[in-house]
Write a structure and sequence with these properties.
This protein is α/β, with parallel strands linked by helices. It has a domain of about 170 residues: Rossmann fold (3-Layer(aba) Sandwich). Helix content is about 25%, strand content about 25%. It has 7 helices and 11 strands. Strands 3-2-4-5-1-6-7-8-9 form a 9-stranded mixed β-sheet. Strands 10-11 form a two-stranded antiparallel ribbon. The longest helix is centred in the middle third of the chain and has 18 residues. It starts with about 25 loop residues before the first strand and ends with a strand. The relative contact order is 0.21.
Length: about 240
């Protein structure tokens, strides 16, 4: 089995046999405030520090906000940017400087990434988030078709990607209900009230070719990043420690 790519999220990699499989497409879903962007930043930063060049495509947050978030976790990306190991593509800023009103499509993302990902190039990719792309398509059917094309492009490029989407309030797991079908792994971050306080938690819904943990675990956002409590399991609707 190929060596895994660590996410850098303390306690999380132990749940997934050490990290993501090289060349896999991984989906991260969660509501606002659940920690999706922080998780994604740690994944990109960890790769860059270890010599795996990473690209972070920001469709919502400006680069300045991402740098502030990283500083809050004690991470300094600037030396990595200078070495070409970490690249931020701020699509909002790029639209201001060039084409203005053109919406972000999957084909445009491919054009931007052309020549940047693949063997010997950037090994890790974050797209934050698919929700922005999906809102620009005329129908769910069109979005699904183009999303699957994009998934094939990522697979052929050989990049290990982390795609971010939204988990809306209610029973839906993803913003459009189809994003999880292109992914090799599907991770959900949750933010909910339990016993009078807001608790963040994570669960790995699927991960191909991996004997992964399927329990719901709490995590904290600390001054050193995200920290998953792998020895603590949460039951639906209440706190509960793992029972042997």
């Amino acid at each position: 089995m190929a060596s895994r790519l660590a996410t850098g999220v303390e306690g999380f990699d132990d749940l997934i046999a050490g990290g993501f499989l090289p060349g896999s497409t991984n989906l991260l879903s969660g509501p606002s405030g659940s920690g999706k962007t922080l998780f994604s930043l740690m994944y990109a930063y960890t790769g860059a520090v270890g010599g795996d060049p990473a690209i972070y495509v920001a469709l919502e947050e400006p680069r300045s906000s991402l740098l502030t978030a990283m500083a809050g976790m004690g991470l300094d990306p600037k030396p990595l940017e200078q070495k070409g190991l970490l690249t931020f593509l701020d699509l909002g800023e790029m639209r201001k400087l060039s084409e203005g009103d053109e919406f972000v499509s999957f084909s445009r993302l491919e054009s931007l990434l052309e020549g940047m990902v693949g063997p010997g190039k950037h090994a890790r990719l974050v797209v934050d988030s698919l929700a922005v792309v999906g809102l620009n398509y005329r129908s769910p059917r069109e979005f699904r078709r183009e999303l699957f094309k994009f998934g094939r492009y990522l697979n052929e490029a050989g990049v290990t990607s982390l795609l971010v989407t939204e988990k809306p309030e209610g029973g839906e797991l993803t913003r459009f209900g189809v994003e999880q079908h292109i992914a090799d792994s599907f991770i959900i971050l949750q933010l909910e009230r339990r016993k009078g306080e807001m608790i963040r938690s994570v669960v790995v819904r699927k991960m191909r070719f991996t004997n992964h943990d399927i329990a719901l675990h709490p995590f904290l956002i600390t001054a050193k990043g995200l920290k998953v409590s792998g020895d603590v399991r949460l039951l639906e609707g209440e706190d509960g420690r793992s029972r042997d």
